[in-house]
Amino acid sequence: MKHDNDFNGESGGEDLIDEQAAAWFARLRSENVTGEEKAAFARWLAQDFAHRQAFDEISMLWGDARLKQVLSEAETKSTEFSRLTKKTRPGPRLLLAVAASLALLFVFRIELAVLLQADYATKVGEQKTVRLEDGSSVTLNTDSALAVTMQGDQRTIELLKGEAFFDVQPDAGRPFIVHGEYSITRVLGTRFFVHKKGRSDEVKVLSGRVEVTDGQRWRQSVVLRDGDAVSVDRDGHGETGRLDTKLTTSWLDGYLVFEDMALGDVIEQVQRYRNGLVIFKDNSLRELKINGRINLRDSAHILQTLEKTLSVKITRLSDWFVIIG
Questions:
Q1: Which single residue of 151, 177, 185, 243 could bond 229 by disulfide (Cβ 3.0 to 4.6 Å)?
Q2: pLDDT tens-place string over residues 286-297
Q3: What does the alpha-carbon distance between residue 191 and residue 210 come to, in Å, rounded to a whole number?
């Protein structure tokens, strides 16, 4: 990407701005963006017109509607910030250093806070099965973390992020409880999934019986049985649905299985297992339906696998920045 503005004519300025814009873009696509991060993004936008140019170019390529609200808020805040700091704003080189630091700090701050609380965690692309002291087992999916409390009659799990599959040993005197962001799941003995997605939790039962309660409002609970699934957000739980067993469980065997799924949804799933950013140059490709199976144990070549099965062009600008179309 090219920009008219540069920082004191120093070489590499444009590339660094592009990298910062890409870092902010990736962070803002997350569903758990905080108010502090939005404010920091607004300050970054206000620091130089080139920042907005770079971010706009990436946004146009992606066409992501989820960014519109954040951008609208940031636009207002950046105007206020520009007015307040017009006479006291530091020089461009210092601004550049601050912007780069903010981008890195806000990406890693949440990760550090989660890891400090976690008893078990996985990296992006990693999966891990752990045996708990009560004989139950938990399999953590990619980029997931949980904290475990096993004291007296308590068997409590806090899913800090990501997704986990629980195979629970029955113990009538010690209910097994999993806390998500919005949900509390109680079980005596069963096999089920909990996925903390940012704006909602998904609970899916492979076998057995669980009770899911809205952890925020403590309204009426819902009971799930074999093959049931429910989503819970700040407004409570939705209607009980049926899970697609193959799609839901395939990651346990190291694969992602897709059946007549839109490419945009496939990429969203794939991105959970690899670092970097993937954008669509042609948004119509998002609706392309595909079938197939992807080997998660070879995460470095996930996109190459997709490219071989699709008649679309995939351009790699770097190891972490890929354009489809």
A1: 243
A2: 888 888 888 887
A3: 9
